[in-house]
From TrEMBL:
Gene3D superfamilies: 3.30.190.20, 3.40.50.790. It comes from Pocillopora damicornis. CDD domains: Ribosomal_L1. The keyword Transit peptide does not apply. One of its GO terms (cellular component) is ribosome. Belongs to the universal ribosomal protein uL1 family. Keywords: Ribonucleoprotein, Ribosomal protein. InterPro entries: Ribosomal_uL1-like, Ribosomal_uL1/biogenesis, Ribosomal_uL1_3-a/b-sand. Pfam families: Ribosomal_L1. This is Ribosomal protein. It comes from the Eukaryota.
């Protein structure tokens, strides 16, 4: 359609645009002043949503064969760790670490599944590790805690400082039984550092508790049954490291519900920056 009057063109556009609505389109040519009216289904122009495809990554690397590392005798493993330590510059005495994998078990009618556990033990041959202790005590107990080597000793004001995040540089929290209920607001902050009577970190004999923690060595078993604990230093003799390792295994065996031979699944000895050597379980468990 062609119209000569531009004003009439606008009127026709206004009248004809109403029935067309969103399903139509109007275009006015600026030069020829021709009006083209056509209808188009805009729904067909909408971009269709592609179905979501869960892309799964496949690895093209396959293990053709696997050979377990050979088990080492304890004396040979210690000799290899000392030889490796000599090749390191600037490292004189490293901590010897023992990795133990225990059988957490499955819950059956005759056996309960072992939950992750942790504790504190005294080694027959301790080695010096500096640990900072936070102590909540009052009066004579506070003075005894300071003499025993408590790094932070205080009362209610110290509880508020810990809650505000002003005091954070400590490894363990200890307290007398008087402060055990007052520390409940700090349970989410302290977590595993929270003192308990079962672990001996909450006691009226606070000096003995501090001495035990300063000389003791904490251990922790995760959900996978892995325990990592130091058993000495490379400067120790083989017999001293063996005595400490045997004490660790005896302590861990108290948490098991099966015999020693079935409770320990794997033993690995290593140093801080040295290689790892699997050990024969039969050498340690009779």
């Amino acid at each position: 359609m062609q119209f000569g009057d531009h004003t009439a063109d606008k009127e026709i556009i206004r009248r004809m645009a109403a029935p067309v609505g969103v399903m139509g389109c109007l275009r006015l040519a600026s030069k020829s002043r021709q009006i083209f009216i056509f209808s188009r289904n805009f729904a067909s122009r909408r971009r269709r949503r592609e179905p979501k495809v869960n892309l799964k990554r496949y690895d093209n690397v396959y293990a053709i064969s696997y050979r377990e590392p050979p088990k080492q005798i304890f004396t040979e493993a210690m000799g290899a760790l000392r030889a490796y330590n000599i090749s390191l510059d600037g490292i004189t005495d490293q901590i010897v670490e023992l990795y133990v994998r225990v059988d957490m078990g499955e819950k059956t009618a005759s056996k309960q599944k072992i939950n992750p556990f942790h504790g504190l033990m005294l080694l027959p041959k301790p080695y010096g590790v500096e640990r900072k202790v936070l102590v909540f005590a009052r009066g004579e107990a506070a003075e005894a805690a300071r003499r025993a080597g408590g790094n932070f000793v205080g009362e209610e004001e110290l509880i508020q400082q810990v809650a505000d995040g002003e005091v954070t540089d400590f490894d363990q929290c200890l307290c007398t039984l008087e402060f055990l209920n007052k520390m409940k607001p700090l349970q989410k902050i302290l977590r595993e550092k929270m003192p308990t009577t079962r672990r001996g970190t909450a006691s009226d004999n606070i000096a003995a508790a501090i001495d035990a923690y300063k000389k003791g060595h904490p251990y922790r078993c995760d959900r996978e049954g892995i325990v990592n604990i130091g058993v000495g230093k490379l400067s120790f003799t083989d017999s001293e490291v063996r005595v400490n390792a045997s004490a660790v295994l005896s302590t861990l065996a108290t948490h098991g519900t099966v015999t020693k031979g079935k409770f320990f699944r794997e033993l690995v000895i290593s140093s801080e920056r040295g290689p790892s050597y699997p050990l024969e379980i039969a050498e340690w468990v009779s």
